[in-house]
Fold each of these.
Amino acid sequence: MSNPIYALNLFNVSNKNEYLAYSRRSAEQVQAHGGRVVALGKFRQAAAGDITPRNVLILVEWTSMEAFDSYCNDPAIADLHQHRIEGTDRYIWHLFDKLEDLRPILKGVS
């Protein structure tokens, strides 16, 4: 059995019509492929760190890496991804393994 993963999406909307075309269908397709939107956010301010801010945050929990891959690679929704690409810029899409605590990361760190 695969472990859940989180997909952190940070981006700016660059073309409202293209992104609307994506967002009208994406929630249903994310769910159909084993994903669930955990959080949506609008940038407020930089508190710390060296990343250039993006205006939008979306955090999606996927049941597995295979579920995420099925969403990304399903030929039936290839046109959907094109709307995301054309409707955004400075897109960051990072994947994180779900952890119950930080012990796996802290193990061996001095």
Amino acid sequence: MSTGIVLPSERDASGRSFGSEERALLLEVLESGILFGPNGTKVRAFETEIAALLGTRHARAVSSGSAAVHTALAALDVGPGEEVITTPITDMGAISPILCQGAIPVFADVDPQTLNITANTVAERVSDRTRAIIVTHLFGNPCEMDPIMKLATERNIPVLEDAAQSYLAKYRERYVGTLGQIAAFSLQQTKQITCGEGGFVTTNSEALARRARVWADKGWNYDSEAADHEFLGLNYRMSELQGAVALGQVRKLTAMVENRVRVADVLRRGLADVAGVRPVPVSSHAVATYWRFPLLIDSEVVPGGPAALAGELKSLGVWSTPNYIRYPAFMCRQFRERVTFGQSDHPYSLHGDYPLEDIDDFPGCKTGLASVLVLPWTERHNDTHAAFIADRMTEAVDRLVRDAGQPTGESG
């Protein structure tokens, strides 16, 4: 029997929070006739307000989350043949910018429980070519930053935080995106706040902030009376239309994130007694802000594991993504066949012993992806939705156990 409950989706208005604030700001832009970011006010206002909220000295708005990662790498002046350590569990938009800088992505394994990289897994991949470390706070759950920063400081390697999924997440009372030398955020449709596409870079470094701003303006410094194209850069500017929506969104960010966290806690409690299902752990000194709600599924208790559970949940009105991504980034064709710039094999040709990675050499990644099931999550989820998901999860697990001929709620 249908309950009449339809869960919110970040794909449309059911899970997004656009209203009179964004409409008013958009109208101001249209009435001004100034849609070009450098000549307007909304992009600059967004940069000022997001920097103030996060407690960072500088923010530079750009056209996408991928552009933010690329701009941050360019600000660090990462160059051809140099290595950038990153995670294999991430969007390709966070990896392609490494290659576009002529640099080499080097993948570190992850913790099988959080699916985040760790200081130990990073240390295994550091070499004398390592130029930067990208730390991705997956699902809005902060990495263990103290040991990572200690390692990076000892080796004099800058840390770039990929905070695309982690708005207002905290590690030891500090916001994610303020812990490394520089950070990249995304404003894509599904993120905690959005303007459809967009992103920004944050840093406390004056030098990195200036280089990021100029580089994303094709190497041109709009703030100088003697402007010139100082170095190679790209056009990654954000438009005033994007800036207006982003500005309206950032003014709601704190309240929207607070609701994500509060309702996530309701769901965590609701799932406490579901056999074989548990939320991805969050450190006691961290605050996760739930871009998605990730679960670890014990296949010995839940027959068929994440894939079978996702199928049952779908039939009960709950969408989910088993295993999160189809396979680790290094198994994509782009890496297996080195499809980059024509037939040049660039930048791999600069690194003669660049390996083709094997999933068996990444036990944390292999185990983590095999066990994770990811639920959509938005600021519009409420207590009723959390209770509905918990009930349907219980029903789905019971069905799988019953169909497998196991006693309900037992692992035998």
Amino acid sequence: MASKKSILIIDDHPLFREGLKSIIAGDRYFSVEGEAGDARSGFALAKK
């Protein structure tokens, strides 16, 4: 089986991010590696 694809969620609505995380958590092909509330924070996380 191929490894999971890593996802970084960037959205300014916390409830929307939580919903996406819970949907993705049930998927065997993807994993959420981080989340951010704005683009600047998202780019900083993506660089790590």
Amino acid sequence: MTIRKNFDHLNLPLADALGVVGEWWTPLVVVSIAGGSHRFEEIQNGLTIARNILTDRLTTLVDNEVVEKRQYSSKPKRYEYHLTKKGEAVLPAFELLAAWGAKWVTPHKNR
């Protein structure tokens, strides 16, 4: 059995959206950037995410124009990450998901 790595075979807007922002860690990265963590180390330390995973998630977000990279140092090259309008537009969906989690998941975690 082959495990699918994307939803490209589906013609559904939700599947398309999840292909961009539905990977493990991605919503937390977006919310972290929205909250003011713009540098790689800030995002990594705030989430305690592995560097390779964060690099992969940021690359996907930049490639899909959810996040933009802005160089702030040339030697060595360093970048900040900022949400685009497209990235800002997904925040209400994450806020709704967080509210759902607060109501239906978090209270039942330690049962």
